[in-house]
## 1
Amino acid sequence: MYYIIATSVVMAAAACLAALWPSLKGKFDRILAWFILIPALMIIVSLALGLAGRLTPSAMLFAHVTILVVVIVPWWQRRVAGHSRAVATPLRGPSIDGRTAPTRVRWGPGARPWLWLLGVVSAIALGWMVYAGLLMPPFGSDSLAYHLPPAVWWLQAGRIYPAPTQFTFGYGYPQGMSLLMLWQLAYTATDHLVNIVQVPFVVLGVLASYGLAREAGVGRPWAWWAGAFFGLTPIVLEQAVVPYTDVAVAALTLAALYLTLRFRRSGAGGYLWLAGVAVGLIVSIKANGVLVAAIVGLLALVPARRHKPLHRTIGLAILALGVPALCLGGYWYIRNLVLYDNPLFPAAVTVLGRTIFPGPRTIQNLLNVTPGQTPWQSFALALQDHSHWYTYDPPNGGFGPVFTILGIGAMVAAGLHALVTRRWWVVVQFGAGMLLLVLQPFKYPRYVLFLPALGGVGFAYVLQRMAGRHTRQFLQAAAAGLMLFTLLAVPYQPQLSAETFQQVRSDVAAGRPPSAATFGLARDYAFIDTIPELNHPDNRIAYTEAGYVYALMGRNRSNRVYYVPATSADEWLRKLKDAQTTFVIIGDDRATELRWIKQHPQDFVLWTRIWPYTIYVLRSDLPRNQALIAARGGGAQ
């Protein structure tokens, strides 16, 4: 109930802000703004409170209630006075030939049945994924390694602080998504809600894809196909219930492109400021938001009708894109600059063979999937759809057969047709997407999830501009058939199958950790629930860097879990005792700490071994440690 109240307050405040946002025309734009402002409010408030050392659920709720009170007063006054700036007209996607697309487009033969069928089936599929995500513990290597641990540490400490130095590879990245996960953790007694943190971004991506198609001059019935191409992409459905970042980044990228095109058409600065908020969210989540900001800035400066003079447009673009990016994501880059002399740490920045910012990784590392593979070879493999198997983190394949068979061809055909017929709005849209594709890493298909949406825009364009009635019906049937095949016939996400539920529940009931064969990385988290002693609120747990840190947090995030760096066995033992350690968990059989334990066998009691973990109790005078050792019969290691 606490979570529902807090989230409702944020949603209400975001709705008021969207209604008050200047320049937006029509309900569609305000709904899109609402989806963008909700995570923006969560991140900015959590970041501000965390840096001030007041990061508690009560303080977060109080801050959001204050924001709601501040914005609801002018919203109510405007509503009562009848002077709302929102223009209640449908979104119009203008035709590039100078005419405006019809306000109402009659549903063509076959359009409504296919879309309704896809909508129903996809809703069922997404519902199953959400249900599975709510039942299962968090999983995924990135989630367990460096997305979730900071959220727990910050909640426990009540402040935001740099992660332990041995984890700089993962924790050097922007951690805005960790703040969104922190919101799910703060008001619930479980962490299962973090699995669905990306679900709202699926909806945002569908809406933004629809908006992009409308901006390309496509009518409503066909524009929804653009949304379907994004929302029914296998990786999108996979990642909807994995605490990763890629669906969020793709959806916000599509929204930023749409809002910038709306700004170009109208010259209204409110659209560019909202695009800046979307870019700021990307920058706070992933460093490639810098590329999105650059492309959005270029689009904003392209001359268009009713625009301000160029120097004023440049000033507006700098402010509209720079201020939100600095407020939402600037901290992470400033932190890296102070700690590591590199704002983009861990990636080294090299210009003309000279290293400007040092770092342990290179751009080549990010681009290549395997040694000896060029970036373009990696990208070519990513386009080869492997329809027999989909996972949330595939190195190659996963966009789905509808994109591979229809989307790529439609994108090429639409781009060429728009270029020949001088429909420059479409050319600009595809050009911006292709430029972003070329500039950013594509080591995995999930890095470029905006690409299926562009394929959907091309498909929608072909339906309206290039296809006759019978061809249109055939293409819709073919697209729907390929999407239904992906949804119903391909066994993607095997971790979330009904058999897995039964296996995991029986393992936990029997006191066993869930089988690695059926649930993979989730075992690294779930094993802790099979050892009740590890969930005691008085525990202080030390770990080695070889294991997943989040696996050691325990129920309700009660454990205090930390890393103890040392250079010798004696120094390590002293630090463990100074920290009043209860358990020591070794995550690797070859860990140096195991050799150190053998040098001081009188100070450690073996508790249990659960591969790949070995767990010890530290001998000390602490009551908690004494009780545990007594339960083991006082045995020595």
## 2
Amino acid sequence: MSLWEPQWIKRELTTSGQVRCVEVGFDEVAEYYKNLKEKDIKLAHAFLQVNEGEHLNSIVPYRELRETLLRDEATKGLVRRSRARSSTAPVYVAFMDADVLSFRTGKKGIFSCYEEAISRSQVPLHGLTTGYTISTIQHPFASLAVSFDLATRQALSIVFPLAPYFPEPNAALLILDDHDTLEVSFPGTFLDNTAKRAQYRSPQEVPLLITEVVKVRFKGSKIQAGPHFKFLSEGAIETELPCRFLQNRKKKDGTKNAKEFNGLFSSEAGKFEALSHQDLIHVRNTSQSHMKSRDWSTYVYNYLGEYMGSDSVQLVENNQPGAIVKKRKDQFLISMFSTLHSFYSPVAVTLREVEAHGYNLVEYLFSFVKDYASMTSRKILRVTYGGDSGSKVKSTKLTGDLLRKHIRTYDDFLSIIDKFYTQPIAKFVERASQICGMAELPIIIRYVQLVPVSLPKILTLQPSEKPQEVKQPSAIQLQLSGVPAGTKSSTGDGAEQAVERADQLRRQPTIGYLAVNLTLPNVKKLLGRLNRRCAYATIDGFAGVKAGNSWRVVNKAKTLSSNVKTIWTKFSSSTWDQVLTGLNLSMQDLTHVLNADMKGIQLAKDGSSRFVDAFFILEK
């Protein structure tokens, strides 16, 4: 029995010249489409897109169908029988699409991955997903696009667990012990009401259902719910290729143009031997992809909504009258998050730089693989202003004018983001951007034929810019980039394990802070802050340098001398307990030194990160 049949209407002219609508069966529609396709295939495709995409009565109401299955007695009976067999085992309902080709794309099947994640979790898991993939056999470009998207979703969930889109083709939600199905429903389901069903839209079905779960179980707080939802790094299923992956955005008439790819994929090598600039644009702009900086930023912005501050924010620049931001904060912040994401994304930077300077695309792409840390060490943001000063659109003009006026440096950028929130979140958005950028590296290695990198201009600084000392990536960075600690990041060994290693990091009870570079301003800031609660002489004694050196570093040092490096090395290599004991500092002292709360300091102290890394992420 069919759960749903679309309603097809054709318009006829009456003898009086009026138009009347007559309901027709599917067979007649199919015959009409078949004949049209024989005469004009393009017109036939347009007919299909317009009728299935624009006329709402012909959109399959997947949300209503899933809701019907959730409430069906057969589903409830299956839950009860499962509990009768094992009263202690949690029961989940899995959501999937009908186009699944394989439940196993790696060493383990999807349900084995779910079981392992549930059993090893220290907290009850209310939702899980492993995502989905497209094979290169179906379409190599779609496979590349989906792999980039999946890696980005997995990486984003490390910092903001419920920010990425949990996909409809593959997700599982926990059924509470005292229920025989989910206690919440899909919002806006009108299966028995034809008039209201005409209002149906089909986006984000599972995310909307998760929102309902969070409302009931976690009082609407995605932050609190985050640890109870996992986007796993293995076990993705393979689905059939959706047509939308190979189409451009919808035009005004409802039709879409097919994407044209010019790259060359070698089935034998399993890699692209050539990629064009337009190819990479198409791959990045795939429908629903988290690779698109603005979409990524919107997910992050929505996730951080609980931390949003007052309705108005004042931005002041060097004793000049400030601008008051009352409305359009979403435009402003999404633009800033987008800029931060695209700064750390190898694909985004490659597209921008190749277009601006004419570099070889694959060569430039692999320059990131060779040394991601160096490529992102220059904190020079290409701010997307959102419109020039002559823009007629008020929202983009507002964003552009404010960003031009108030952002001069990378630190300005982060500090302005924090003005909008009740807690400092900019460093975490930065960290999420970097981890997502790193997650692109193993995908590049897996899909693109490696070429020698010979672009000395890439790392050349402009004369007006001062070089920064670039430190080798920390063990945490090496783990996130998929390279085992102790090996050179340029080899690419183990790069395909990047997201898996990142997921292992996520499961640890520690916080992975971004590594801080050895620079003179950083050393001065560290010593100056510590001097708020301990004497310079105490710092000298702890660092093993002669008396007076710490004071001279803060007040007179102009270069990274051997003493400066000695002091930094001592703090970098010491644990939190060693620093606290050596400087005779209490945890309460550190709340004054860092202007941070006790909870954050305790988390840093309990973690395994270096003292200086956590110090600078907490310092406000």
## 3
Amino acid sequence: MASNHVIFIHPDGTSPAHFTMARLVTGGPDSRLNWDNLSESRIYLGHMEDQLTGTSNGGAVTHATGVKVYAESFGFELVRDENGNPVIDEATGRPVETDLTALSGKNQTIMQEAVAANKATALINSGVIAEPGSGAFAAKVGQGDVPDGAQGFAAFPRGQFAEITRQVVESGIDVILGGGLVNYLPAGTEPPAGAVYAQSAAQLDAISTASNIRPSINLIELAKSLGYTIVYTEEQLKAAAADPTVLKVLGIFANEDTFNDNIPTPQANLRGVEENLIATNTPAYVPTAPTVGEMLKAAQTILERNPKFANGSFTVLEEEGTDNFGNINNAAGTLEALIRTDEAIGVAKEFYAKYPNTLIITAADSDAGGLQIDDTGTTVGNFRTNPTGLNLPDFPDFQNPGDGQRGVGTAAFVAKPSASGNSYTFGAAWAGTPDFAGAIVTKAHGLNADKLPATIDNTDIYRVMYETLFGEDLPDRPVPQAIPAPAPTKETGNVIFFHPDGTSPSIYGFARFVSQGPDGRLNYDLMSNSGVYWGT
């Protein structure tokens, strides 16, 4: 069995346009992010078994098992009748599910297999640890776990945060870092003294007392009984990382997420858009919480001294702020989340420099908000939409408001100077608030990174991670594969330059869906190499 290392980074909801915004602000148009400098780039196709746009939970299950699942899956598969339709339980009205077998042939996620193989493991999230991008690697919940009569978020398997958190605590993963104090404590429980961000049991109960959110037992006490050192702040995490006797750590860094896409007030919850954050003097992130980069650095320090590290290691890290801020069209919050993501990629590259038998791989499952950027004046105005010219009262002509540094119609973002010394201002535009299939690019670096197909399916994330961790090359999904170009016979030759003006992976996705279907491949997909183009 291989003794290699894998770091999977899930910058949820991001596209090349998102990273362009971070690049412009942090270094300018001629700079390069850590994300840019990962050696391999691939177009990512993320459709589900039953829809074109990936879901957080379904996408995570696919990354964790290598299997296409239905959109609401959190570790289970649907039972279907002879016509391929979901079987519905007559008593509950819910779909009937069955156990999911991973591409490896086991009823385990890749993280669960890594734990069973005695590899050092870490699970990290800037959101609650039950967030699917991390939680689905360590837990599974199904339609049968949904409480009777549940409404809203609680009516979905992915909404069972208390049960998911319990399974994460019992998973055997060595380092678990994220938010979600409310998911560890039964209703009415006073917060631990070290949780400086939590004021009282009443404050936690005001967030929720529902059974899908609050567990029936104290999961922090359970974690202590399993040998975990519990930390609640950045400083406490650093202290644990500096203590050579500490091998298992559970970090809980916020009441809910470590970012504030939701602002609780005595009157009601407010969306964490720029204007509301400013009006309530609420920071985008909890000040005492570590960034995901700081979490990763501490986790790797702890894993490196673990005797299991000699068998290899597996780390899953998700920055959820990129998705949640994107989904409410908060450009400033999204930017901060992107910078934190890139910091974590830098930490992963430092680890790779020490251990070249490491694969770093990144993937989003969808494009949050469909972010685009454009040049603007000092104040961001509106972005003109294409008027229909028709008298359609349900779809009137309109203009999209643009986001600046402090929200809609405010001072523009300012890029660092270009190599020529020019400075530019720009605004952010959004296609909407949901997740889109979008223009998603996977980046990879290190061991086996070059084995990714030219256009990758979401199942390929699992496949390359599995080969690196366990030394087994699993069968490819039966979709068209690129044929590598023959080796050149001369130093110079023929050139054919195509200029499909104005296109992006999203536009080719549109063409693929219509002409080939989601599992088909365009000629564009079957070219042997790919990269990310910056046209600034």
## 4
Amino acid sequence: MIVGMKKVSIVIKSSWMDEALFTLGELGVLHLHPNTPLESATLSQLKEKIRLLEQVISIIPERFMNKLPVSSCNEEGFVYAKKVLSIREEAKHLNEEIGELESEYQRVKPWGEFNPEEVNGLRDAGIFVKLFRCHKREITTITKKHNISIISHDDSTINFALVSKERDVDIPFEEIPPPLCSLDKIEDLVSEKRAHLRRKDEQLSNLFENALVMKATLKKCKDRVHYEEARAGLGRDEDVSYLVGFCPVPSLEGLKTVARENAWAVLIEEPSFDEPVPTLLKHSKWSRIFQPVMNFIGVTPGYREFDTNGIFLLFFSIFFAMIMGDGGYGVVLLMGTVMVQKWYKHLSQEMLLLFYLVSVTTIIWGAVTGFWFGVEDLSHLPILKVMIIPSLYSFSRESGETVMHLCILIGAIQLTVARTYTAIKQYPSLSLYAEAGWASLIWGIYFIARYLLLHETLNTIVFTLVGFWFAMMILFGEQRNDGFVKGIFRGLSNLLINVVTGIGSFSDLISYIRLFAVGLATREIALAFNNMAGDVGTSNIISTVLVIFILIFGHTINLVLGAMSVLVHGIRLNLLEFSKHLSVQWSGIRYRPFKIDTS
């Protein structure tokens, strides 16, 4: 449910501004709407500190967070954070230098241990030593007048040195730049830098001990940003300041009480249609389960739109089961959820309940279709066989058309629910009859889809359903408050646009076939890995181990791909096809009340 909001305007003396903001922040119910642009040097500095602190806290290992909480904090946390970043930058450069030295060591190694300074001394005496590399069969092309010495070689390459009194010698081979220092010197440098790197790691570890101080400083900076944003967003007129915000209706009494106690002038009114009213969702125990998915997607319905969590959860659990398509995978997910609940305490209760729900629905779908890890013999077990619905049995040829029909039916039901919701919200406007027309069209498309995809006889009711839609579009599709007849003329003029939109509705309904297509892909991948394992056989220990590996690897990959498909297709059907018919644009602003932590 979307909680109702009221627009609240508060007028105070400018001299009361800091005290009033502190009181509002302590109350924590008013979502502020700034009257002036939020720009100030203080805000920029605070946001830069927050960025730095968040960057540092994100790299601190979890074990450093399991300390006793700090009672207070100051700028010391920011100092620690800057030190961490500075030392990390030094450590990064050390790692790069070590990598370069190790690469140089591998380049110099084929030439053995020698002192480059001695080579430079020979050059000063007029004797030039150059290093070359060539293929073994090419070494014979060097004339005898050249004085060469083979340093090292492998199966195909020869590394050799050429000694000459001439500075420039024309040899058509790859010349190797001389090393900057000896192998021993490189090893010493690497050891020295590694020791330096270990000291940096120790310094980082010591700084990480102050993780909670940095975290507390971050929280303090965020509270300060909220305060500075609220202060910057105040309107001012000589000795008077004012602010505007939105307050949930259930919290209004508390705000009124505080306003009376502090002698504030308060105006409470209904928000206008074009104002950026924030959205506060109040979930039931049922709809709360789907909120982790909505948080993951990061979308919020508009204030005047719908809270879709409950209906999303119902259909999402069905979509999940049909896309995964395997009761065995449902059992694996269920066992995994039990283990996560036991060993990982940080997962929210809503997330756990969601995993339990989709695990159970997947098991149910696998049971009625007789599909368990893609093994047909498992479906013949007495306890599993009795749960199979014959027309949905995965290993029968006829089941494909039944599942396709079911996908279209589910789509028609969900889109009809969307149109029904919209009609209820439009009551008592005449536009609700137009929504009834759209619902009629959806069922007309349903019968047309069965005719085109499943080659069934076209039901004559289609003409009635589509005709009813045409009538509703003309009569009620464009009704305003300026007269019924004018609305009819607008309906006639916009009929072509509505026809194009109706064709789009056909595409929306057909889109639900993806449940069958992706579920079929998941099934075929499972069967492919099972067949691969069957071809290997279990004639000996090695082949048995290989079979086990193929099955575990194959079904794990299939399970992961299925989960990814749910994120793409299962969520899409809710957020696009369904939401379009519900007229939800996901343009909402999340309710974020101005709060200051006074603890």
